[in-house]
Amino acid sequence: MVISGMIIQHFPAMLLFSLFVSVVFAVVSKDTQRERVIYGIKSFALFIGVAVLLGWLMYPVPR
User: Fold this and answer.
1) Is residue 16 within 8 Å of 47, Cβ to Cβ?
2) Domain assignment present for 29
3) Residues 6+ positions from 22 with CB-CB distance below 8 Å
4) Tens digit of pLDDT for each residue in 24-60?
5) Has residue 30 been placed in a domain?
6) Rounded-to-integer distance, Cα 16 and Cα 36, Å
7) From CA 56, how far away is CA 49, in angstroms rounded?
């Protein structure tokens, strides 16, 4: 991914994507500020956790 001439590697791009999507999910789906914060943190952690888990599972697979 290229942002204004700067190349972003896979992991930072995944972190940015996870952060933005988690914020949008939290704002759209929850009513109170407390619920939004908790849901945003949970969804961010799940995005990162699942991505790391899938990376580890795919590591031994040859290209």
Assistant:
1) no
2) yes
3) 40, 41, 43, 44, 47
4) 999 999 999 999 999 999 999 999 999 999 989 998 8
5) yes
6) 18
7) 11
